[in-house]
Design a protein that fits this description.
A: alpha/beta; 7 strands; B: eight-stranded mixed sheet; two-stranded antiparallel ribbon; 11 helices; 14 strands
């Protein structure tokens, strides 16, 4: 579960200096003000709160953990206890302007199905995930021959809920498979700074510790 | 046991827990409440009949209700609390029949989640009930005798329509929230479906959008117990001066088991014996759990009208919200702007979490705003009436958020 950005502000450098979640700010900036948003895997509701207060969104969440749901609902957020791998099927087409999957893709049982559902339910999808192709993961594998354990992926392989790690290149390939279009993409390095836009994919895939994609369904 | 040789002792079921004089006073008190309740009451004349789902009109509708807190000038702080099967309007006030605290004082009161310092809370006895709202125990003004089985059958929707008449009478156009558990939750769902523009937020707890076959079956057992009692007299017991108290007590005992969980019965009683070292080799209440159930049955019959029990259980059985909307539950909430907060309990097997999840899926499909949580509890269905901090935290957060959205002041912190 994430620690909320202390004051919900859309200021990457301020959040970075406070040690907050820069990726949440990047996600929130991709969402047009006043939109209807579904956050899949909403944790304790930090992103929902950010979207509601800074983007004036009608923001709703689905969260698997009872603790996360209870904490969020007690703060007045609209969160349902549910499983992304099952419950997305119950939402109608085009129910939301954006469907967000923040740091959750790698924990789903059926990432492809989840992404398809997101693009059905929402006009746009925003996906953020840890990049398994980051140079430090590669170094861990190459030098130590071990699965990487980093700040971003802190749990050992045998205990992690993250069962479907992918790299930025892997994700782009899946997006192409689904006939979706990438509207925006941001990679954040390990210090929370954006990797420069004009770099080629392989540089992003090496330097980006996290990635955030804005997708639309039509190509 | 050796001295008589006359078979097992039967003990004295159903009479050993309440003193006779106290019992008859309580019963007499309960009997009076049906027509002249200790709470405020509104009487609608023949000019304002209630059209029932049964296809007939009910004249002389009377509603017994209770209010807590004060309405604000803008009329934006009204909360309707709906009671369950055997509840009444005394959600947060001393019950005039039993002398016990209100049935939802954990949830409703000053500084409670449904905060009577900020909200104007209304709770009405349901149609078919026996605490001042028209039901089979009420006197039919046209005959001067109790309705008994001449009372038409009522539905959850009829109950809600009667409540809407009460709100009109009180001058309340919109409700900040409608909240209730079990049958109260059914009314909440019906309110949201029937009067979406009057309901800003809704909190259906431990409930379902339809009564399951299993639940109908349990109710049928209870009704058969009442009707099998010779003192039921074909429903005319009030006129004949008797009460089918044994049948109703058995109904209550069976029902009470469904309100608890295996775990909570075990925790409370286990296999412990009642005031004895050894089993008596008879059918007296050897076990504490038996003694407890007998007590539950015995005290219930003092306060509740047997026919009323038939009518209100029937109303629950008939409840199937989707059926009124082409079989698609989502259609009941289509276009609804109401905010919902649905909650269930892990050990509730009367209204299990799947029932709540079906409501949530329908609300999702209709695009409504909904929160849903399953609360960990070993107390079974009754958990919604008990000390459940998670439920209170959620209810408080949900209501505060709704109140904020309407510009109402925030309450003291939990």
């Amino acid at each position: 579960m994430s620690i909320a950005v202390r004051q919900p502000v859309l200021d990457e450098s301020a959040v970075r200096d406070q040690g907050g979640r820069v990726d949440l700010v990047v996600v929130a900036e991709m969402v047009a003000p006043g939109s209807r948003v579904l956050d899949v895997g909403s944790g304790d509701g930090a992103l929902l709160e950010l979207l509601a207060t800074t983007r004036n969104c009608d923001a709703r969440g689905i969260e698997l953990s009872r603790e996360g749901v209870n904490a969020g609902v007690a703060r007045g957020l609209a969160i349902i206890q549910g499983d992304a791998d099952v419950d997305l099927a119950h939402y109608p087409d085009d129910a939301f302007d954006y469907v967000i999957l923040s740091q959750t893709l790698q924990a789903t049982r059926r990432p492809r199905w989840v992404l398809e559902q997101m693009l059905r339910i929402g006009r746009r999808a925003v996906v953020s995930f840890p990049n398994f192709g980051h140079w430090r993961s590669r170094l861990d594998l190459m030098v130590n021959g071990r699965m990487p354990v980093t700040d971003n992926m802190p749990i050992a392989w045998y205990e992690t809920p993250n069962i479907h790690f992918c790299t930025i290149r892997d994700f782009v390939a899946l997006v192409e498979l689904l006939d979706a279009r990438i509207e925006k993409a941001v990679a954040l390095d390990s210090s929370g700074h954006r990797v420069r836009v004009n770099m080629p994919w392989w540089v992003w895939n090496l330097l980006g510790e996290q990635a955030v994609f804005l997708l639309t369904r039509e190509r | 046991m050796l001295d008589t040789g006359a078979g097992p002792s039967l003990g004295s079921p159903m009479t050993s827990f309440v003193r006779k004089d106290v019992a008859s006073n309580t019963a007499a008190e309960a009997r009076r409440e049906a027509d002249e309740p200790h709470s405020p009451v509104v009487r609608f004349g023949t000019g304002a009949p209630l059209r029932l789902d049964a296809g007939v009109e009910l004249n002389h509708l009377q509603i017994g209700y209770q209010t807590y807190g004060e309405p604000n000038a803008a009329g934006t702080n009204a909360v309707l609390v709906c009671h369950a099967l055997t509840g009444d309007q005394h959600a947060a006030s001393l019950n005039p029949v039993t002398g016990k605290p209100g049935w939802w004082e954990t949830m409703v009161g000053p500084g409670r989640p449904i905060d009577t310092e900020r909200f104007f809370v209304i709770c009405a006895n349901v149609l078919g009930g026996c605490m001042g709202t028209t039901g089979p125990a009420s006197t039919n003004p046209e005959t001067g005798r109790p309705y008994g089985l001449d009372m038409p059958l009522v539905t959850i929707r009829d109950m809600v329509n009667a409540q809407a008449m009460l709100l009109d009478h009180l001058g309340i156009e919109k409700l900040l929230c409608v909240a209730g558990g079990s049958m109260g939750g059914m009314q909440v769902l019906q309110w949201a479906a029937s009067y979406p523009e009057r309901v800003f937020s809704a909190m259906p707890i431990a409930t379902g959008a339809r009564h399951s076959a299993q639940n109908i079956a349990f109710h049928e057992v209870g009704r058969q117990a009442v009707m099998a009692d010779p003192d039921w007299r074909g429903g005319r017991y009030l006129a004949e001066g008797v009460t089918p108290h044994r049948g109703l007590a058995v109904a209550r005992m069976a029902a009470h088991i469904t309100y608890m969980s295996d775990q909570s019965l075990h925790n409370k009683f286990g296999r412990r014996l009642q005031n004895r070292e050894m089993p008596t080799f008879g059918f007296d209440a050897d076990f504490q759990v038996e003694s407890y159930l007998r007590h539950q049955g015995e005290s219930f019959v003092q306060r509740f009208d047997p026919n009323s029990y038939l009518y209100v259980t029937r109303a629950m059985d008939y409840f199937d919200l989707a059926a009124d909307y082409g079989g698609v539950l989502a259609n009941a909430f289509r276009g609804s702007k109401t905010r919902f907060c649905v909650a269930s309990f892990t050990s509730d097997w009367l209204f299990p979490t799947e029932d709540s999840r079906a409501i949530v899926h329908a609300l999702n499909a209709s695009g409504a705003s909904v929160s849903f949580t399953e609360i960990e509890s070993d107390k079974g269905h009754d958990a919604f009436l008990l000390e459940e901090p998670q439920l209170f935290a959620i209810a408080r957060g949900f209501l505060d958020s709704a109140a904020r959205a309407l510009g109402l002041p925030t309450g003291r912190s939990a």
